[in-house]
Write a structure and sequence with these properties.
GTP binding; nucleotide-binding; alpha+beta; GTPase activity; Alpha-Beta Plaits; eight-stranded mixed β-sheet; 653 residues; 16 helices
């Protein structure tokens, strides 16, 4: 079986392409995943094929990346409008990082929305590989009625519902065909000395030789050939499928590529797991592509026995099912297989770095509809994060509530639907509160005496403490300058412990940071003093001093790295400034052509707005990662509102 992924932005007709390709020579067999990765098996040219129809939203890029792990090649569907080329930028980035041989298919050419050369030029801004036209359109007025193949120099006229008809190259297209063919041959000659010599000697190379060279350079991932068509009318589908059949490499090339990336012996690389999902009453289903023999139920894979092996298209299973090398199969009760991973019989190996999904930008607290679902929700989210690497599951600081980081609102909605439909857990979501802190603005001194008389031994401790602001980022410090044993040495650790305890909640209701405490005097009683007494005296004394120290609210500030196509960089200064952030600068992204990495400091309370503004300004393409940088003072009405909200019943503390 040969396997390819069809990927690209939403509304570029990917599913229609898969449907038409699968129906060229018979009836395809299909299966669907709740994550939007659909699988179609079909036969073409007496060979078995598997097409992975990858989801289109940018929030599902993780599943696109994983599909490429199992693909010999891919088809990148793009719009025929030049201004929409930027929407393909994330997919070109993934394709090039993965090393997957790619055919670029300009779909919906029946809707004239710009010149093809402008589409290719706009896309080339985001591709390190040369985008090489293999076909040009034939026009009648504003309509595209066919295409001309630049290698065979044959022209075809589209016919609705039928295979295209062979025609002579129209005079109106002859000059453009000659120009585009010369450009094609010039680029191909960069990878073949024989062809270069033929061109230098002004000899016309035969089509068979050109097809062989084209097949080799695609297999070696040296160029990205460009084909055109309109899948909804069946136009260009046969040519696209023939290009895959003759030019896409076999499964052995993918095995070699993955073995190199995973630093594993190629002969030991038995399979790759690339997708998983949970089904009601069935459990976890894992999709695997086989590279070796003997992967039947009970066989050793990934260090444990393989569960039931199923045909992914019809769900049938049985002990007699044994996928051949190259086949895609499903397995249940194989929870030991992480997804994605490279698999030998005895081990699981981490996938290549390029499979790391974009950093999730949307943070939400999930609240179960009933208390009895609290533990169930925690366990279920852990399961789902194993099958969806775009999802990160944490606990909210202070409350322990379930906090999820999702790729965006669509991803969050799908997560909530899965929780309800598959696991019968209904949840609502809320925005988590930023992690605020407080400190003091001025020093103070306090004298605190703790005296308590009970029926037995009493409690006595007397401390004199000075409290002062520390420099930012230094945290809590404690020192002592007592002399003459006024506070015995064995009680001083208890004084420090009490001071630390007082820092847990200051007068504004938040944890106190960047404060120094010094014990400079005190008294003790030979009988009634104890560690507990001095700890209590210190805690109460520091609390009193904090209330006199002009408490200041501190907001978290994060260092953000924003990844965006370069055409959007100009809008980010205004976005960051509007969020009261600080622009630090930007650089070209050395790993992705046409992208910038924009650096900024952004208040924690503005990160949700940053995600929203970034999605709006970049058509959902831009994303950011964040790391905590420091706390800074926050004053005025904004600070007052935060303190009031924190004091309200039910507020997260």
């Amino acid at each position: 079986m040969r396997c390819f992924t069809v990927l690209g932005p939403s509304q570029t007709g990917k599913s229609t392409v898969v449907e038409k390709l699968g129906s060229l020579e018979g009836e395809p067999r299909k299966s669907r995943s709740p994550y939007g990765l659909n699988l179609t098996e079909f036969t073409f040219g007496n060979e078995a094929w598997c097409a992975l129809d990858a989801p289109g939203p940018n929030e599902a890029l993780a599943h696109v990346q994983h599909a490429l792990l199992a693909s010999d090649a891919c088809i990148l569907c793009v719009s025929s409008a030049p201004e929409e080329a930027v929407l393909a930028a994330p997919y070109l980035r993934i394709v090039e990082a993965s090393g997957t041989p790619c055919i670029l298919f300009v779909n919906r050419m029946d809707e004239p929305r710009g010149r093809l050369r402008d589409v290719i030029a706009a896309l080339q801004d985001y591709a390190n590989h040369t985008l090489l036209l293999r076909q040009i359109p034939i026009r009648e007025g504003d309509r595209i009625i066919g295409s001309c193949d630049l290698i065979s120099e044959r022209a075809w006229r589209y016919r609705e519902g039928q295979t295209s008809a062979l025609i002579a190259i129209p005079e109106s297209a002859a000059e453009r065909e000659h120009e585009a063919r010369s450009e094609l041959l010039e680029h191909l000659s960069e990878f073949d000395d024989w062809l270069l010599e033929e061109l230098v000697e002004d000899r016309e190379p035969p089509s068979d030789a050109l097809y062989a060279i084209s097949s080799r350079v695609l297999s070696e991932n040296r160029i990205i050939p460009v084909l055109i068509g309109a899948a909804s009318h069946g136009n260009g589908m046969m040519r696209l499928m023939k290009a895959l059949r003759h030019e896409a490499p076999p499964a052995g090339v993918l095995r070699q590529r993955l073995a190199r990336a995973g630093n594993v012996d190629e002969n030991k690389l038995t399979a790759v797991s690339f997708h998983a999902y949970h089904r009601q009453n069935i459990g976890k289903t894992v999709l695997v592509r086989a590279f070796g023999e003997g992967l039947r139920q009970g066989a050793l894979l990934g260090g444990s026995s393989l569960g039931a092996v199923q045909d992914p298209a019809n769900g049938r299973s049985g002990s007699a099912i044994s996928p051949a090398p190259g086949d895609v199969f499903a397995t249940v009760k194989s929870d030991h297989l992480p997804v994605p991973s490279l698999l030998t019989s005895g081990a699981t190996i981490a996938p290549p770095e390029w499979t790391e999904p974009p950093t999730p930008m949307l943070e939400r607290i999930l609240v179960p509809g009933s208390d009895r679902d609290e533990n169930k929700l925690s366990e279920t989210l852990a399961k789902l994060s194993e099958t969806d690497r775009g999802l990160v599951v944490l606990q909210e600081e202070g409350t322990g509530a379930q906090l999820v980081r999702a790729q965006g609102p669509v991803h969050l909605r799908d997560l909530c639907r899965t929780l309800s439909d598959v696991f019968h857990i209904d949840v609502t979501d809320r925005t988590p509160s930023p992690i605020y802190r407080e400190t003091i603005a001025k020093p103070s001194e306090v004298h605190y005496r703790h005296r308590k008389q009970t029926g037995g031994a009493g409690q006595f401790a007397d401390v004199k403490l000075s409290i002062r602001p520390n420099e930012r980022g230094r945290g809590f410090t404690f020192s002592e300058t007592v002399k003459g044993g006024v506070v015995p040495r064995n009680y001083i650790p208890a004084v420090e412990a009490g001071a630390r305890e007082a820092m847990e909640k200051g007068p504004l209701g938040f944890e106190v940071i960047d404060v120094g405490v010094t014990l400079f005097d005190g008294q003790y009683h030979a009988v009634d003093s104890s560690e507990h007494a001095f700890r209590t005296a210190s805690k109460m004394g520091v609390r009193q001093a904090l209330s006199e120290g002009a408490a200041v609210l501190m907001q978290p500030v994060f260092r953000s790295e924003i990844h965006i196509p370069s055409i959007y960089s100009g809008s980010l200064v205004q976005i960051v400034s509007a969020l009261k952030g600080q622009v630090l600068g930007f650089d070209r992204d050395e790993t992705a052509k046409g992208w910038d990495i924009f650096r900024a400091l952004v208040p924690g309370g503005a990160l949700d707005d940053l995600a929203r503004s970034l999605r709006s300004a970049t058509q959902g393409i831009g994303y950011f990662s964040k790391t905590f940088d420091h706390f800074e003072e926050l004053y005025g009405k904004e600070a007052d509102a935060i303190v009031r909200a924190h004091e309200e019943p039910g507020a997260a503390h």
